[in-house]
């Protein structure tokens, strides 16, 4: 799963930058059972860090109730065209994924 992409876009809209990110991840809650009745272990993103020009600006802590392939949309103040917005996640298995985009 670690090789699955994060699709990210950051666009100036007036005085703010709107960031949209789609993260490919199964996000298993640990509440379901497989076909043989055995519990499926929890496996989900539990931390997301957003950076602006390599400086952290937002940290999210997620639980097992977040849906498969989570989508985030938020706005940042202070970003300019050409700045770099990064997003990194860490899941409960220790897998990580990062992506970075330039503000358009």
UniProtKB/TrEMBL annotation:
It holds the Pfam family SoxZ. NCBIfam families: SoxZ_true. It comes from Rubrivivax gelatinosus. InterPro entries: Ig-like_fold, Ig_E-set, SoxZ, SoxZ_dom. This is Thiosulfate oxidation carrier complex protein SoxZ. Residues 9-101 form the Sulphur oxidation protein SoxZ domain. It comes from the Bacteria.
């Amino acid at each position: 799963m670690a090789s699955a992409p994060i699709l990210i876009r950051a666009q100036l809209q007036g005085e703010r930058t709107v960031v949209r990110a789609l993260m490919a991840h199964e996000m298993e809650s640990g509440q379901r059972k497989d076909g043989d009745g055995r519990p499926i272990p929890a496996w989900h993103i539990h931390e997301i860090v957003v950076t602006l020009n390599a400086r952290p600006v937002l940290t999210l802590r997620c639980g097992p109730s977040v849906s498969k392939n989570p989508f985030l949309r938020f706005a940042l103040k202070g970003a300019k065209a050409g700045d770099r917005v990064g997003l990194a996640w860490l899941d409960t298995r220790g897998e990580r994924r990062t992506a970075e985009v330039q503000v358009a």
